[in-house]
Amino acid sequence: MSDGSVAVRGLVDEALDLLHRPIICDLATLRPDGSIQINPMWFDFAAPTLRFSHTSRRAKFRNLQQNPAMTVLVVDPGNEQRYLEITGRLAEWVPDPGGSFHLELAQRYGEDHAGPVPDAEHRVRLVMAADRARYRPGAA
User: Residue 23 sits in a domain of what CATH number?
Assistant: First the structure.
């Protein structure tokens, strides 16, 4: 990869803009019954990891405690046939009391976060180790 980052198998240079632009991704995890839970999420990318702000009191966090498998889908808003799918696993979660990482993501996504961070005392940073990527360049 030309940006000098650690390689993620299948991640090609022409897909990197989808990870560096503030695009809301869809994050999928597995519920205990085996069904899939998908939610739109803010994220940031520091190869080979993606990081998300979440809380320790929600189902997605509990899902990941039982099964660390994660899949992220990032769709180019300017070309909806162009997308990047990344599979991996929860590598770690880091307590973020006060939600400072949530505020970083809010800034990345152009949100003016004037009030207190929602669920600040329960905030965590989820760190996804990306194992494999699949890129579809979409329509020309």
Answer: 2.30.110.10
The Cα 115–Cα 109 span in angstroms is 16
Beta bridge pairs of residue 21: none
Cα separation, 111 vs 76, whole angstroms:
20
Where in the sequence is the domain holding 52, given as residue range(s)? Answer: 13-135
Specify if 24 maps to a domain.
Answer: yes
pTM for the complete prediction?
Answer: 0.90
Q: Are 91 and 128 in contact, with CB atoms under 8 Å apart?
A: yes
CA atoms within 13 A on the CB side of 111: 14
Helix (H, G, I), strand (E, B) or coil at 57: coil
pLDDT higher than 90, residue 7: no
